[in-house]
Write a structure and sequence with these properties.
By secondary structure, this protein is an alpha/beta fold. About 35% of the residues lie in helices and about 20% in strands. Strands 1, 2, 3, 4, 5, 15, 16 and 17 form an 8-stranded mixed β-sheet that branches.
């Protein structure tokens, strides 16, 4: 980690400090409630925020000796929390991307041996050093985009050895890059090639053999499943996620992406941390997720790259959901970790206000990882993960559409990146 006065800082002359507040997800209309103050300051001691608010309310004498940083009128926001990615993988699928752009169907490619199974072959062939090298490069790009916490799913092994190697690589990358990585075991991503089309046999294998090995490794914090017609049905996903929870892995779910198959209802039934994608989800699903307190995670880069209609984030928010935004960085449907593009799509095509988007990419992203108690907002006692923008206000995030305006990223109060 790079750093000037690691873990301690006094940031002054902040043009605008903008942050959601609280230690839980913000739901519905509350997603618009952003604390915004001009001429602000932040004091950081030992990696935690000691003060965040108007400079006029800061007792500078109490923080004498802290390294002083002049923000020169730039806006400051919480570090982004990218709560859904698959960034530890080998091999790329640019050819498939162009096939889809020319009209080929995602599931047709998958059934013909491409798609996820193509990445499985490449990832199985990659050793640990190669996965770490690739993952570290992608993680540093995230830091440059202002991401301070990211979730990383396995699921490109579909066997025990490679799944464990992916998770170990995620842990190794976290030790090398200035970013927190939350590992998820995606046991049901596709049926392992050894099982051909016998998804039931593969589910049995995962529950009986792979899950215990992942739990014993002690790296993964969540489990995930792809609930989709032609992949895994709700009953198979339920069996896997219930078994995973019994071993300490909290459930998340890929739901209603390509079709409405009951994944959102299952996520609500299980009280999952999040239900993700939700392109085909409807009002009944929104109400179930809101009632269950499941974070609805929208992935606009995936729908953009697939040429699909975006998830109805507006409807979700108006139904009382807590909505998160994440990139879904992966080699197939969204080979992009572009936070700026995700923000632009959310505002321009999904009907979200910039206040809602900021909440979705910070506090609600943290809540989707059960981490909102200590990050995702700028307030005393939370981790000092924050970003300086090369702009005076958060309104420039969508206004400078697709442009990275991150001037500096701080992780636990230490400088991790400077443009």
């Amino acid at each position: 980690m790079n750093g000037e006065g690691a873990g301690n800082a006094l940031v002054v002359d902040i043009g605008e400090l903008a942050t959601p507040l609280g230690g839980v997800a913000r739901r519905g209309a509350a997603m618009r409630e952003i604390y915004r103050v001009e001429d602000a300051a932040i004091a950081v001691r030992d990696g935690l925020i000691a003060y965040a608010g108007p400079r006029s309310g800061l007792d500078e004498g109490s923080f004498e000796g802290l390294p002083r940083i002049d923000a020169h009128g730039m806006a400051v926001i919480p570090g982004f929390v990218d709560s859904h990615t698959h960034f530890i993988f080998a091999g790329y699928r640019s050819g498939e991307f162009l096939e889809r752009a020319s009209g080929s169907d995602y599931m047709e490619i998958h059934r013909s041996g491409g798609g996820i199974l193509s990445t499985v072959r490449a990832t199985r062939a990659a050793d640990a050093d190669e996965l770490i090298r690739l993952g570290e490069s992608r993680a540093w790009t995230m830091v440059q985009n202002g991401v301070t916490t990211v979730e990383c799913k396995s699921g490109y092994g579909l066997d025990i050895e490679t799944e464990l190697r992916q998770l170990e690589a995620a842990r190794a990358v976290a030790e090398r890059a200035a970013i927190d990585i939350v590992p998820t075991y995606m046991g049901l991503h596709a049926t392992g090639p050894e099982f051909e089309d016998r998804s039931s046999g593969y589910v049995e294998y995962v529950i009986a053999e792979a899950l215990p090995a992942v739990a014993a490794q002690g790296i993964a914090r969540f489990s995930d499943a792809f609930c989709e017609a032609g992949v895994f049905g709700p009953d198979e996903c339920r069996r896997f996620l219930v078994a995973a929870r019994a071993l300490g892995l909290e459930p998340k779910l890929h739901a209603e992406e390509l079709g409405r198959t009951g994944g959102a209802a299952l996520a609500a039934e299980l009280g999952a941390a999040s239900a993700d994608h939700l392109l085909k989800a409807e009002e009944d699903d929104f109400r179930l997720l809101a009632q269950a307190g499941v974070v609805a995670t929208c992935l606009p880069l995936a729908s953009f790259c697939l040429g699909e209609k975006h998830a109805d984030a507006r409807g979700m928010i108006d139904s009382g959901c807590a909505v998160a935004i994440a990139t879904d960085l992966n080699p197939g449907s969204a080979c992009s970790g572009s936070i700026p593009l995700a923000i632009a799509l959310a505002v321009l095509q999904m009907g979200m206000s910039i206040e809602e988007v900021l909440t979705a990419l910070t506090l609600n992203g943290a809540a989707a990882l059960r981490l909102a108690a200590d990050r995702g907002s700028l307030e005393a006692g939370k981790r000092a993960d924050f970003v300086l923008l090369d702009a005076p206000s958060i309104s420039f995030l969508p206004y400078r559409s697709g442009v990275n305006i991150v001037a500096a990223t701080f992780k636990d109060g230490a400088l991790a990146y400077r443009a």
